[in-house]
Amino acid sequence: MPGSTLAKANSGFTLVELVTVILILGILAVAVASRFVGAGGVAEVVDRDQALSLLRRVQMLAMQQTHSDACHRLILADTGMVVDDLSGCAAQSPGGEADLSIHFQSSAPVFSAGGSPSALPQALDFDALGNLSQCQAGCRLALANAAFCIEPQGYMHPC
């Protein structure tokens, strides 16, 4: 009889074993579930990050090249952004060969300056302090569900 009670007490799992198995199953479920989730929303974030990177590059160039005839213009269109130093600051659309450009994979951007939407194409000019002349009251560029803001002082961040 004493042997049967000992065998009965050891027939189950301990709490540590159960927690370990549940933890491993949870980790596997998260890893496997990420494979089945679509790429929706990824294109918008990539477009936002590329646009932000391009804006920051032109901003840095504007702050480094401060001579009076320097033109640091970025043209925002429905399909993408173009850094167009070749056409000069008098042109409103890209002409010739652009130095840098990105093509939006997601929907067309919505650019708003001071809270009101602006028509595209929009020329964005940086001054020697890194400020956008169009963003005196702040700007916002939205690409579907991903957006970033440009503060009046030139600071750019996802919002």
Automatic annotation (TrEMBL):
The chain crosses the membrane at residues 12-33. Its main location: membrane. It is a single-pass membrane protein. GO terms for cellular component: membrane. Pfam families: N_methyl. InterPro entries: N_methyl_site, Pilin-like. This is Prepilin-type cleavage/methylation protein. It comes from Gallaecimonas xiamenensis 3-C-1.
